[in-house]
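Hi W., the manganese (II) ion complex you wanted:
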Amino acid sequence: KNVLVKRLWLQETMASVSSSSLLNKAVRQQYMGLGQGGKCQVTYIWVDGTGEGLRNKTRTLDSEPTCIEEIPEWNFDGSSTYQAEGSNSDMYLIPVRMFRDPFTLDPNKLVLCEVLKYNRLPAETNHRHSCNQVMQQVKDHCLWFGMEQEYTLLGVDGHPFSWPSKGFPAPQGPYYCGVGANHAYGRDVVECHYKACLYAGIQICGTNAEVMPSQWEFQVGPCEGIEMGDHLWVARFLLHRVCEDFGVVATLDPKPITGNWNGAGCHTNVSTQQMREEEGLKYIELAIEKLGKKHKQHIEVYDPRGGKDNMRRLTGLHETSSINDFSAGVANRGASIRIPRQVGKDKRGYFEDRRPAANCDPYTVTMAIAQTCLLDPT
Ligand code: ADP
Ligand code: MN
Ligand code: MN
Ligand code: MN
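Structure:
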């Protein structure tokens, strides 16, 4: 009977893992070790028309580019990415930031791109363009961000990774920063993603297991201005790509499992030069006051569906604030804005906006914060 149970379990596990992840990875090594005759593979990455999905395609350059200016513009078929307007389906890819490719290794590159339409205006979901304009306006403030990306691992069948196929795991409690096969589900993905980010040149600064089993977080930052969105989008690309190798899927849905299970956010930490200097706390308090006046407008840009996604997450339970109320407090994880305890003590540092959903666009989030805190009248 035991053998039968084990076989059934194995069958279920195999069904929840993608078949391409079961291809022989040792055979792959033979080809990955081949020389490439001085040529360079460059993978262009962009945000598609959903504002959440990432797309990529690869081309050969004759030599290794030494800076972003050496990577040529390219194009793609926008009618296949929910991006084309009418019969003009060609979209432009404008390289904006270059990273090392941790999958095919040096000298190959990953390059994040902005998308322009046939008339060379930014595509609807190209929020980098306007974000960059705001970041230019506030650049004297030396605005730093750090974002905490939470995500949940699923099988390709959409079921949370390694949860029992019927029923639920034991209630939340032992999983946050947990260790052991009964507490930490899928650590291989987390560790490989971390290494891939460091190799690529992402400003990743940490990682931890989250409150719900199979839920994890990595942190990127501090990054100045537009770099925040650039680094987080490419870190997300690396996450999806690493998951592909393991045959599992990472979802950024802000509330993947309803009920007594934590949702997933993208806490955004913020500081200006003034906030980081002595007695900076008064500038933090001023920024919070301004944020309080624009709560609704911020909620609208803190997920890709104008607040609808975040509504499932910001309930006032599970370490969140209610979506309808604005609140702030020192060390308060049930508030919209938290001032970390150390910052309260030192009277300088940064604050944390806990409202952005895991699937937010970091460009719209950082742009809204910069606009409200630094460009709005007092
Ligand atoms: P939490 O206690 O909220 O879980 P984490 O350690 O997960 O905090 O994340 C802290 C985040 O704050 C990181 O992304 C880090 O880069 C960022 N951070 C640290 N110092 C600053 C600062 N001065 N300005 C902006 N962001 C900062
Ligand atoms: Mn965190
Ligand atoms: Mn967290
Ligand atoms: Mn946090």
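The first strand starts at residue 40 and ends at 47.

W.
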